[in-house]
Amino acid sequence: MPDAIAATLAAPNLKPLAATMPDMPVHRVPLVKATAANLRGFGEIIEHPDARKVEIVRWPSLGWRQVEPGTGDQGGTTEGMFAFKWHGDVLRARNEAVNDDYVLGWTCQPSQAREDRQTAPREELLLWRCNYHPDGGQLFFPLEPGPFVTTLALPGDDITPDSFVAFYSEGGTGLYIHPGVWHEALCPVNDSFRFFGRQGKVHARVGSNFPQEFGCYLSVSLRAEDARETL
């Protein structure tokens, strides 16, 4: 089998049907307000989509010979609309910058989730995976008003559910995420939300499947009243 075909077959399914996912215990993630101080190390609040240059990470060398200066970081960035929409109990998203779409999670256990209508209060998101981009940062800037929540963990492959923190934004400002920071895009509180997105063009992705690795989903509150002032 050609390597390209094998790689495609091995790629994770990023939009699983709820019926194919197991019910699992939930691990509740702390929710804090998205402030510059709270986001330090994870990313930055931005006031304009061009206020922050996307960091591009130089391609690593494979041995003792070093990558030559001025090379290995020339892929640049790609950009486009990143749209999020609730379909009943299911949160779906589409990233036009990389031509991909996703199921981010559910408001209830998968066995109870309906896509044709909402059956559970929209008070939490059960996340089933996260990922990071080793090749560059990622920028989100809202194209409409409304609150949103993003769930992040600091760089490093040895994560646990306790590594994650959720950040509540009232809207009006954007978010820049540093390279290597774990995330799974954003979660709108309203029915739908559109962002302008910009990120590294290579779009390397390293992921973690929470049910497979940790036997749980991450439960992220979407309620403003649950957001603490500090970590």
UniProtKB/TrEMBL annotation:
Presence of keyword Lyase:
yes
Which major enzyme category is it?
lyase
What Enzyme Commission number(s) does the record list for this chain?
4.3.2.3
Q: Which reaction(s) does the protein catalyse, per the Swiss-Prot or TrEMBL entry?
A: (S)-ureidoglycolate = urea + glyoxylate
Instruction: Provide one Gene Ontology biological process annotation.
Output: allantoin catabolic process
Q: Which SUPFAM superfamilies does this UniProt record tie to the protein?
A: RmlC-like cupins
- Superkingdom, according to UniProt? Bacteria
The Gene Ontology terms for molecular function here are: ureidoglycolate hydrolase activity; ureidoglycolate lyase activity
Q: Which UniProt keywords apply?
A: Lyase, Purine metabolism
Subunit and partners: Homodimer.
> What is this protein identified as?
Ureidoglycolate lyase
- Organism for this UniProt entry: Anatilimnocola aggregata
